[in-house]
Amino acid sequence: MSTETQQITTIRSLTLAQLEELRANPKPTYSIDGQRVSWTEYIDSLQQTVDWCDRKLQGYEPFEFQSQGTT
User: Fold this and answer.
1) 37 three-class SS
2) 14 backbone dihedrals φ, ψ, rounded to 5°
3) How far is CA 67 from CA 64, 70, in A?
4) Using alpha carbons only, how large is the chain's radius of gyration in Å?
5) HSE on the CB side for 3, CA within 13 Å?
6) 21 pLDDT above the threshold of 70
7) CA-to-CA distance for 26 and 18, rounded, in angstroms?
8) Model confidence pLDDT, tens digit, residues 26-42
9) What are the angstrom distances between the C-alpha of 66 and each of 13, 17, 39, 60?
10) How many CB atoms lie within 10 A of CB 53?
């Protein structure tokens, strides 16, 4: 079973691949049978997913606190 960090990294990679494909082959927004398909909104959603992954992954990075004692 993969760790949460690996899962988030995989989600990020897959989402970036989708973004790359959509930017290489852009599609227009259209309506069919009363349903609207907005590729711009979809791309925005994918970018938000990448941003979310980045924030989550930053939380897993090692960190240290520096402090200085006084007497």
Assistant:
1) strand
2) -65, -40
3) 10, 10
4) 19
5) 5
6) yes
7) 11
8) 888 889 999 998 989 99
9) 33, 39, 46, 18
10) 19
